[in-house]
Design a protein that fits this description.
Elements (H helix, E strand, L loop, with lengths): L40 H11 L8 H19 E4 L3 E7 L2 E7 L2 E4 L5 E7 L3 E5 L15 E3 L5 E12 L2 H6 L4 H19 L2 H7 L1 H18 L4 E12 L5 H70 L1 H17 L22 H15 L1
Length: 368
Amino acid sequence: MPWENNGGGGGRNTGGPWGQAPGGGGGGGPRRPGGGNTPNLEDILNRGRDQFKGGVPGGRWALVGGVLALVAFWGLNSIYTVEEAEVGVEFRFGAPKQELSTAGLHFHLWPVETVEKVNTSQNQTSIGSATGAGARANADDGLMLSGDQNIVDVRFAVLWSVGNPIDYLINVRDPEEMVRNAAESAMREVVGRRPAQDIFRDDRAGVAIEVQDITQAILDSYSMGVSVSQISIENAAPPAEVADAFNEVQRAEQDEDRLQEEARSYANTLLGDARGRAAALREDAAAYTNRVVQEATGEAQRFNAVYAEYVNAPDVTRKRLFLETMEQVLGGSEKVLIENGANGSGVVPYLPLPELRSGATNTSATGN
């Protein structure tokens, strides 16, 4: 054995491999700090040569196993799976292939080819809110200046999806951040052109549509391959520092609207009554007109009838008309008229006939 030649004094060393007996017996050569002899470099090389005299451990089967392990490792990296809501984009030496990998199991030549997976389902990016997917913790993101110089705190979300996975992967470094920045810039532009009431309640739908169009135009200019489906304004309110004053203004505007509605209701009531009275007056006027016309028609017919009789007997008709007229005229008179005669002078002197009549009436009443 190799350590048999390392003993001191030329004799056989029955100790350990370094020429020292296991029980601490003496052997030649320098000693290690731990109590043993320092090994010779030649001995170390000889031991290594003896161990590898038989070649590779395990022979050719070990080599075949190593090759199979490498093939298995390459196969595992060359096969990949695409989920249902994803598409895969394969890159060969960094250049994308135009064919997209749909859901299922696929193969590519790794490491010459690599694959990037893109989620094509709808994504949501929230802006100006500390909660929700993709939201930022900075509460000042939603503070914007409106067209009438009011500060508005707008919380909204962008719903978007990937339309062109290749453009999405290679044209912009951080697509999600780009969507956020484009939507926020578009919202600030639209809010800066409009009064605060449009964002609060009057025209939220119009603001959302306009922001969506501007955001889509910005993303298209960068060829991102992203399609914006909706802008959802979740909340629009004044900052907390001026919320009380703004609420007072809102209440005043609500009171103004309420009073205007009451005034319009009162005006409609008065107008209805006036129209009703006007209709009644028109009906009365129409009835009066009809009555006057009918009376005039009757008088004309009676006059024609009298005239026909007058033509047949003028003297009789003239006398009858005279007597009827005098009867109507003198029917309520208190004077007594007599005809001129041989012994009369014409008109009897005035007598207090009304007093006599009233006295006679009282007498008769007392007697009864």
